[in-house]
Amino acid sequence: MDTPCTAQFSHTDSVDLVLRTAREQFLVSPQEETRLWVKNAEGSFERLCNTRVTVLDAALKTGQLVVMETRNKDGTWPSAQPHTTKSASEDENFQGQPGICGLTNLGNTCFMNSALQCLSNVPQLTEYFLKNRYLEELNFCNPLGMKGEIAEAYADLVKQAWSGHHRSIVPHVFKTKVGHFASQFLGYQQHDSQELLSFLLDGLHEDLNRVKKKEYVELCDAAGRPDQEVAQEAWQNHKRRNDSVIVDTFHGLFKSTLVCPDCGNVSVTFDPFCYLSVPLPVSHKRVMEVFFVSMDPRRKPEQHRLVVPKKGKISDLCVALAKHTGVSPERMMVADVFSHRFYKIYQLEESLSSILDRDDIFIYEVSGRSAIGENSREDVVLPIYLRERTPARDYNNSYYGLMLFGHPLLVSVPRDRLSWDALYHILLYRLSRYVTRPSSDDEDDGDEKDLEDKDNIPKPGHVAGGSSQDPGPEQAGPSSGVAGGSRAPVDNSAGPSHWPQRARRKHLFTLQTVNSNGTSDRSTFNEDTHGVSFSSQPYIAIDWEPEMKKRYYDEVEAEGYVKHDCVGYVLKKAPVRLQECIELFTTVETLEKENPWYCPSCKQHQLATKKLDLWMLPETLIIHLKRFSYTKFSREKLDTLVEFPIRSGAGGGWLGGKQGVGRGAPVLTFSPPTETWISLSLSSSRRTSRPQSCTNMISSPFPTTMGACVMDTVCARLWQGHAPGAQAI
Question: pTM of the prediction?
Answer without folding.
Answer: 0.57
